[in-house]
TrEMBL record:
<keyword id="KW-0288">FMN</keyword>
<keyword id="KW-0216">Detoxification</keyword>
<comment type="similarity">
    <text>Belongs to the nitronate monooxygenase family. NMO class I subfamily.</text>
</comment>
<dbReference type="InterPro" id="IPR004136">
    <property type="entry name" value="NMO"/>
</dbReference>
<dbReference type="InterPro" id="IPR013785">
    <property type="entry name" value="Aldolase_TIM"/>
</dbReference>
<keyword id="KW-0503">Monooxygenase</keyword>
<keyword id="KW-0285">Flavoprotein</keyword>
<dbReference type="GO" id="GO:0016491">
    <property type="term" value="F:oxidoreductase activity"/>
</dbReference>
<dbReference type="Pfam" id="PF03060">
    <property type="entry name" value="NMO"/>
</dbReference>
<protein>
    <recommendedName>
        <fullName>Propionate 3-nitronate monooxygenase</fullName>
    </recommendedName>
</protein>
<keyword id="KW-0560">Oxidoreductase</keyword>
């Protein structure tokens, strides 16, 4: 691929020494593992550790596990801190009532909000900074100036997530080094916070690349090398792929989740599991939840159900995050899946 056929590579991106212009999407909640991140980095891409739901000690251990399996750069990803929403008891009761029959079927105690609703972002970031990775990425908002400065002072390349041009411009003004442009087809949570354009990935990449001067990383529905080529031509410097790695040998995708991905089905945007919109395979829990609490309350409320469902192999209560291209996901070692996304490979 000729250099002019893709977006700008900043000195920071160049220093990563990537052989394949593909970032493994961070995938918090089980699908992403240290082994998967290391395998992608070893194969010439940028592995990411989705650490948003990990405690500080778990983050330290997971980063050590990645470092034990690769000497190449990798990224760690967290969710930007959010103000805790205030909700009344009636809203909590309504959200619990919708989950009650699912709890009963799995012989769980009735649904209730736990005392700890989310991890403390400052403590998570401190764990990341105690052994700084080459790259830190984040979603769901903007970073406070002191957090951004602490990352920069540690020499970490910082990547924010935008679902539209306005958010991308704000992130650039804040001083991030690169921005993920997340198209509508993307699996998992919508990563923005202000205005989600829900645009096609190529169109969004073009719009963001012409609006900002930092490198753009395109995400959403990129399943084949042709898709990667298309976003690089549209102005992206890198492609970020999640769903393409869900069936990787090294992924933590549970057997029930893997089986659901192999079935014909459809993805939908839902707030049923976490209170924030996210794309996943449609299932019974999505159909039943009409009054989710705002994030992170619903996320905390549904956690016991998701944990028990995974153990019992019940896909109907799992958050089966997947992008619109899930039917094209392949099994195999992550290195081979990465090679299949390499835009520079010679056409057969
Ligand atoms: C299972 C799963 C979990 C995800 N978790 C995160 C996450 O923790 N942090 C994040 O920034 N993005 C997360 N995403 C979104 C990805 O960063 C990316 O936008 C998406 O995977 C791209 O679309 P694709 O899945 O079609 O490749 C997740 C996506 C999936 C499929």
């Amino acid at each position: 691929m000729k250099p002019q056929e893709r977006g700008p590579a900043s000195a920071g991106l160049e220093a990563l020494g990537l052989k394949v212009p593909v970032v493994l999407a961070p995938m918090a909640g089980g699908a992403g593992t240290p082994a998967l991140a290391a395998a992608v980095s070893n194969a010439g891409g940028l592995g990411s550790l989705g650490a948003a739901y990990l405690s500080p000690d778990q983050i330290t251990a997971a980063m050590a596990a990645v470092r034990g399996a690769t000497n190449w750069p990798f990224a760690v990803n967290l969710f930007a801190p959010q103000p805790l929403p205030q909700v009344g008891p009636a809203a909590v009761d309504a959200a619990c009532a919708e989950l009650a029959s699912f709890h009963a079927a799995l012989r769980l105690p009735p649904p209730a909000l736990p005392a700890q609703l989310q991890e403390d972002f400052g403590a998570q970031l401190a764990a990341v900074l105690s052994a700084p990775p080459a790259v830190f990425s984040f979603a769901f908002g903007r970073l406070a100036p002191d957090h951004l400065q602490a990352l920069k002072a540690a020499g970490v390349l910082v990547i924010g997530t935008a679902t539209g041009v306005k958010e991308a411009r704000q992130l650039e003004n804040d001083g991030v080094d690169a921005v993920v442009a997340q198209g509508a087809a993307a699996g998992g949570h919508r990563g923005g916070w202000a205005h989600d354009e829900l645009a096609g990935t190529v169109a969004l990449t073009q719009a963001v690349a012409s609006a900002v001067s930092i490198p753009v990383i395109a995400a959403g529905g990129l399943m084949r090398r042709e898709d990667v080529r298309a976003v690089l031509r549209a102005g992206a410097s890198l492609a970020q792929c999640g769903t393409a790695f869900l069936l990787a040998d090294e992924a933590g995708t549970s057997p029930a989740y893997r089986a659901a991905l192999a079935q014909p089905g459809r993805t939908v945007l839902t707030r049923a599991f976490s209170g924030r919109p996210a794309r996943g395979l449609h299932n019974a829990l999505i159909a039943a939840v009409r009054h989710p609490l705002p994030y992170p309350l619903q996320n905390a409320l549904t956690r016991p159900l998701r944990t028990a469902g995974a153990a019992a192999g019940q896909a109907d209560v799992l958050s089966l995050w997947a992008g619109e291209g899930f039917a094209q996901a392949s099994q195999g070692p992550a290195g081979r899946l990465l090679a299949a996304l390499d835009p520079s490979a010679v056409q057969p």
